[in-house]
Amino acid sequence: MKQFINMRYPVELLKRIDDFKEKNDFTTRTQAIIYLIQFSLKKLEKSGLE
Questions:
Q1: How far is residue 42's CA from residue 2's CA, in Å, rounded to a whole number?
Q2: What domain of life is recorded for the organism (predicted)?
Q3: What does the DSSP assignment read for the chain?
Q4: CA-closest candidate to residue 26, choices 1, 34, 37, 48
Q5: Rounded CA gap, 44 and 25, in Å?
Q6: pTM higher than 0.85, yes or no?
Q7: What percent of the chain has pLDDT over 70?
């Protein structure tokens, strides 16, 4: 089962995501966004701020 989500981002945020994507060799912007979300969630879990 596939799920889709449409999100709108400010242009400045997209530029920062694209820079992150290029520096970390992600193929797509979506991969970079998912990685950043997962990383942030793990960081929150470790800090106990869930």
A1: 24
A2: Bacteria
A3: ----------HHHHHHHHHHHHHTT-SSHHHHHHHHHHHHHHHHHHHT--
A4: 34
A5: 25
A6: no
A7: 96
